[in-house]
Each structure stands twice: as C-alpha cells, then as structure tokens.
Amino acid sequence: MSESAQAVVPKESATVILVRSNQTNAWEVFLARRHRNSSFMAEAYVFPGGQVAAADTDAQLNGHISTPDNFKPQALLQDDRLSPEMAQSFFICAIRETFEEAGVLIARTSSGHFINFDSNQENERFTAYRRELNAGTLTIHDIAEKESLLFPLEALTPYAHWITPEIIPKRFRTFFFLVKLPEEQKTTTDCSELTDSLWATPKDILKMHYEKEIMLMPPTLKTLDELTAYTNIDALFAAARGRVIYPVMPQPGDKILKLPHDPEYSIEKYKQPARPDEPSRIVMTDGIWQTGFCQNK
Question: Is residue 3 one of the residues assigned to a domain?
C-alpha cells in the first residue's frame, strides 16, 4: 500500500533497551515475554515499552525533570517535526513504561542519587505505586510529587526510530532508548502484559531465537543483531551517541520485510543509502524471522 488516507495513523510510543554489565566483563540486555492473550505480539520476547499517555505530556512534570543546560529532546531524537514538549514526552513515556513493565525507575532522589529500593518499606511503597500506575489511578507526576523525585532524561540515549508498516492495522511510531540499569535496582515483570523475562547477551538471545526457544519480532531481532557488535556498555553508548536516527518503516513483501537501506526498498520517503555489509531485510524462514541480505546487492 502506498501512503494514503486509508493507512492507520501510528500511535506514538517508546521502547527501552535496558542493559547491565555482568560478572564476566560482558553485558546483557533485558527482554520480557508478552502475555499469550496480548492483542499485539502475543508471547514474543520484547523490550519494555508502550504508548505515550496524556500524563506523559503534563506540563507539571517540568518541575521534576533534571537535564543539562544544552539538553534538546527533539535534536536528540533527530526529528525537527516534533515540538519540544512532544519530544520530551517520549523520554517520560520510556521512564514510565520501564517502571510499569520492568519495575525499574529511572529517577534521582533530592540528594542526587539514583533511587533504590533497598529497604522493605521502600520496596513495598514503590510496588504499590507501580500497581496504581498500571491501574491508571496514579500518574508518574503523582509519584514524583510524593517522593520528591527528579527524572534525569539524559540517562536515556536515543537509539532508533521504527514505524509499523501501513498494511498493519495496529501501528506505532516508536523511539528506542538505551538505558543502563541503575545499581541497587532489579527487574520484575508486571505479570499482566508481560510474564517471563530474561537477562542475556545479545548473541545468546539470538541463539535462543534461532533455536526456537523464544520468539523475537523483527524490530527486536534487528536491534539485537546490531547490538552484537559491541563488546562492552561504554562502547555501545559511545556509538549510540553518534548514531544517525531516521524512521525505519519496513516494506512488506512475501514473507519478507525490506528495510530502508535495502537496494530494493522503494518507499521514497523513507529510503536510505545502501549499506552492503549490514543485513537489509528480515525474512520469514522455517517459521521464524531471520535477518538477511538482498541477493541483488
């Protein structure tokens, strides 16, 4: 389908690639499995994330945001069509969704330290906040007010921008963010949208996918494939800070999704220069998605 009024307008959303160092000087990434009854990507292992909510754009949140003087969210997202407020809401959404879905809160206390849940009383209090946040009876601003928290938006490094193809009835425009797991915090899934979870290296996760132990969807698969290039977290974040971010809207074919840098990609609005050494398509083979190259490159 070409661009037309019939295409469903994508919903704004954010996704978090949560990473941590492990004891072998390597690093790991967090994935959680979507509930089998989910209407979108059921049972797939995914990064935490979800839609931008109205509360993520609340101007009152500005009193609880900590950023460097030169912090410009739309410049970091490399999308000048976004207003500063809308760009900032993607960062807030990423923080909120990570807390809702993984139990990790990217926030600092009034003393300037990342929050931790090391006491039973504190753990119980934030578990209750998380439950109310998921139920819609509390907002991220409410939590910040109650606990005098500041959200350090610079702790989130924009990584990618994916758009669901037009032929899909449920569409999203999603910014991916890299985030380090704060020390003294642990991941716990919410047991409603997300059930099982895992921490593993990108290579090990891909191995599990190709051996059909877990299921990955195309954006997650391609992202993990890219992440295998980095031997440590510092190298990953250094590369991400210099990364060019552009909209990735796959072009569907027969059991294939062509990415914008594929030589045969033909959606002019999103087309990118060819990169012959990088997989440029995602192909359904033997019942699973796999990265691949254009044979006519």
Answer: no
- Other beta carbons within 10 angstroms of residue 224's beta carbon come to 24
Please tell me the pTM assigned to this model.
0.94
Say if residues 189 and 196 touch (Cβ distance below 8 Å): yes
Spatial contact of 172 and 10, defined as CB atoms under 8 Å apart: yes
In this structure, are 140 and 243 located in the same domain?
Answer: yes
> Mean pLDDT over all residues of the chain?
92
HSE on the CB side for 14, CA within 13 Å?
28
Distance from C-alpha of 98 to C-alpha of 48, rounded to nearest angstrom: 6
User: Is position 165 within any domain?
Assistant: yes
CA separation for the pair 135, 158 (Å, rounded): 28
Side chain identity, residue 60? Q
Q: State residue 51's pLDDT score.
A: 96
Half-sphere exposure of 19 (CA within 13 A, CB side): 27
Q: Are residues 15 and 103 in the same domain?
A: yes
Rounded to whole angstroms, the Cα distance separating 91 from 84 reads: 11
Those residues whose C-beta lies under 8 Å from the C-beta of residue 189, and which sit 6 or more positions away, are 32, 101, 102, 103, 195, 196, 197
The answer to whether 264 and 294 are in contact (CB under 8 A) is yes
Query: In sequence order, what are the beta bridge partners of 199?
Result: 30
Domain count, the chain: 2
Q: Is 188 within 8 Å of 29 (Cβ atoms)?
A: no
Sign of torsion over alpha carbons 41, 43, 45, 48: positive
Q: How is residue 97 written in tokens?
A: 């969704």
At 48, the amino acid letter reads: P
Q: Which residues pair with 257 in a beta bridge?
A: 252, 282
Cβ-count burial 1-18 (b if 16+ within 10 Å, e if not): eeeeeeeeebebbbbbbb
pLDDT band at 47 (very low <50, low <70, confident <90, very high): very high
The answer to whether the CB of 152 falls within 8 A of the CB of 220 is no
